[in-house]
Amino acid sequence: MGEHGDIRTGRHCVFVLHAHLVFVTKFRHPVFTDAHLNRMEEIMRDVCADFETGLSEFNGENNHVHLLVNFPPKVALSKLVNSLKGVSSRRMRQEFPELARHYYRASKLWSGSYFAGSVGGAPISVLRQYVEQQNRPV
């Protein structure tokens, strides 16, 4: 996409909000194969769509996944995370019963914690110039 290709519009705002999310498996068990990761990406894309959020990038290894999401301001990131983790855990356990051996007594796929970091955005100099231009009479 171009320099402003990720800019989205809502009813009352224009926004570019990206977050990098990392989810780790319970006890960091090496659980996922490529087939698991491919299905996980599909599930997470569906959840993001329900939140009007774009899944820009997805990648993972045997014990964690990385997501880059483009989300609207009305979405509480914690609610998106809870849904991503909950839905993916439930669906993966249903579709891949062999994953259960990694849970021991826990019925959860993911660790209770996660990483969320803000990503991208315009440099301060660009923002300053934009704000200054808003004060000029037309």
TrEMBL record:
Superkingdom field? Bacteria
- Please list the residue ranges annotated as the Transposase IS200-like domain: 14-134
Leader sequence range is: none
Q: What is this protein called?
A: Transposase IS200 like protein
Organism annotation: Nonomuraea coxensis DSM 45129
Species lineage = Bacteria, Bacillati, Actinomycetota, Actinomycetes, Streptosporangiales
